[in-house]
Design a protein that fits this description.
- This protein is α/β, with parallel strands linked by helices and 340 residues long.
- The chain is built from 10 helices and 14 strands.
- The chain folds into 2 domains: 63 residues, Phospho-2-dehydro-3-deoxyheptonate aldolase, domain 1 (Alpha-Beta Plaits, 2-Layer Sandwich), CATH 3.30.70.1140; 250 residues, Aldolase class I (TIM Barrel).
Length: 340
């Protein structure tokens, strides 16, 4: 249910409503707006009629049901787009989230060199995998905590916040020690145990869409994180699996405007995984900005031919720098900015 407080409702009235919601065995999620406060009450749907009694409480303007199954992710609860603070970088505002780096962290020289080069090109986040969920158990699986330490060294040198993947609920605290943004990969989008754990920490979560995940399922996965108390979620479209074999995945750009109409959460696009071919990264990046994406995640490697993973879809740093210069007019047309 959505409880809309009156303009000018006192802190005591708001606290009283939150206390009453908890007494009815629901969880209140307070959203403070410019003019008024909205409280989302989330819990067992079977008893929601009891919440209508809140209309008689002091300071309450109205009580209405949330019609979408993804309650906290819906624009019914928060009409304006959320802006997520990631170690000082704001995602969802005017500046686009430009995340770049290698698929896998391989060495201190590789990750630090990449960090310096992508920052000089205009990137404001560094990505890199320390834990790698691979299709084959014989493929490179990542450097684990050593990889996290190398990412931290690259952050120290470049000043870029780092985005890295967490795969196991038991490793959430470890990855959180190093990461600025915790990434949930496509294979874990419905790992609900992991999502619940991530909902209980205070780190931004970048949630990637699964290979065969519908938009509704995608938003319900975000709901798992939000319902546990973590409101800092960024969605990422990274291509879905279809019958087409010309590309690694099928880039579903139509999901961007759909998501933007359904949810207040920021939405970015990963054209590297979305196509699997470095030649397609530039045109799909232009298209992603045109349909309203809040940022791009692009794989960049100083030596793609010898990359431990995903070399064919990785850009060289010089090509990445050229791409960002090319994208700036597209961003300006959409009222957005790239770089400082």
């Amino acid at each position: 249910m959505i409880i809309v407080m009156k303009s000018g409702a006192t802190p005591e009235e708001i606290d009283s409503v939150e206390h009453r919601i908890r007494s009815l065995e629901y969880t209140p999620h307070k959203i403070v707006g410019v003019e008024r406060t909205i409280i989302g009450a989330v819990g067992d749907e079977r008893g929601k009629e009891r919440l209508h009694a809140l209309e008689s409480m002091d300071g309450v303007e109205s009580v209405s049901p949330i019609l979408k199954p993804y309650k906290l992710a819906s624009r019914e609860v928060r009409p304006e787009t959320s802006v997520v603070d990631c170690s000082g970088q704001l995602v969802g505002g005017k500046a686009l989230m430009m995340t770049a780096g290698p698929c896998s962290v391989e060495s201190v020289e590789q990750i630090c060199t990449t960090a310096r080069l992508v920052k000089s090109a205009g990137a404001n986040f560094l990505r890199g995998g320390a834990y790698k969920p691979r299709t084959s158990p014989y493929s490179f699986q990542g450097l684990a905590e050593e990889g996290l330490k190398l990412l931290a060294a690259a952050r120290e040198e470049s000043g870029l916040p780092i985005v890295t993947e967490v795969m196991n609920p038991r490793e959430v605290d470890l990855v959180a020690k190093y990461a600025d943004v915790m990434q949930v990969g496509a294979r874990n989008v419905q790992n609900f145990s992991l999502l619940k754990e991530l909902g209980q920490i205070r780190k931004p979560i970048l949630l990637k869409r699964g290979l065969m995940t519908t938009i509704k399922e995608f938003l319900m996965s975000a709901e798992y994180i939000l319902s546990e108390g973590n409101s800092d979620v960024i969605l990422c479209e990274r291509g879905i699996r279809t019958f087409e074999t010309a590309t690694r995945n099928t880039m579903d750009l139509s999901c961007i405007p759909i998501l933007k109409s359904e949810t207040h959460l920021p939405v970015i696009v990963d054209p590297s995984h979305g196509t699997g071919l470095w030649e397609l990264v530039a045109p799909m990046s232009r298209a992603a900005i045109a349909v309203g994406a809040d940022g791009l995640m692009i794989e960049v490697h100083p030596d793609p031919a010898n990359a431990y993973s995903d070399g064919p879809q990785s850009l060289k740093p010089a090509r990445y720098a050229s791409l960002l210069e090319e994208l700036k007019p597209f961003a300006e047309l959409m009222g957005r900015t790239i770089g400082s």
